[in-house]
Structure formats: structure tokens, C-alpha cells
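Worked example

This section walks through a single chain of length 142. The input is the sequence exactly as stored; nothing has been trimmed or padded.
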Amino acid sequence: MSVATMLEGKPRNIISSLPDDNVAVVVGLLAKHRIGAVIIRDKSGKVLGILSERDIVREIAREGAAVLNTSVSGCMTSKVLSCTTEDSINHVMEVMTENRFRHMPVINNGELLGIISIGDVVKCKIEQAEQDAQDMRDYITS
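Given that input, the structure is written out below as C-alpha cells.
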């Protein structure tokens, strides 16, 4: 199964923020949309980073609540690993596991198409396992 298949069932709106926004703005976006990470883009739409709940908690532990008033650019993960729609679910799961992160942008030819989470990957793997089991039952009974 590919990332393209996984994106088919997801909403296409991508929640993002500008690097100069303060962290409190992103916290509000995370809470409002019930998501775990926000893509940080410049005004032209280019991906500059990602800011996750984990990034924010790490900064609060280090700097205290004052972090909420600092710019996103100081807290975001700048080295963003991404995937394409052609990548397999297994590949994405491996990269997420090895690098210990839970959200990955999907980028084709420089264009941000969406973001997938480890929850999306697990859901697809479960659906795939259920389909394989059903196919096996159908084969045995035929």
C-alpha cells in the first residue's frame, strides 16, 4: 500500500503556521484542530519545519512557560524528513520508527500534499491485515 492510498481518505486541509508566529498561536491551532503537529511554511508555501507537541513540551521543560511567547522558528524541527505519494506504508513506518517521530509531511516535486501520522500508518496496516485475513478465509472456503 502506498502513501497515495492513505492520503485518499484524509482531509486535504493542511494546518500550518509561519516561522514568526509565536508558539502560543501554534498551541491554539493544535488544540482547536485536535492534531499533534503543525507544518511551518514561509509565505510562498515552502516547508521550513515542523512543530509538534513533543517539541513544545521539550522547550517548556528547558525554558519554562515564557516559550509560549517566542517565535516558532526557535522551537521547530528544521530538518524535516518527508515522504512522497509513491512511498510504501512500510517505508514510512520504518522511517518514523527509526527517527522517533509521529508526523511526516507528504511532498511531491516541492509541493506539500498533506501530512500523515503514525496513527494513519497503523490504521492502514490494520486494514491491510484484515483484508489479507479475509482473502485467506475466502480462498480456504472456495
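What to look for: The helical segments are 3-8, 23-33, 53-63, 89-99, 118-141.
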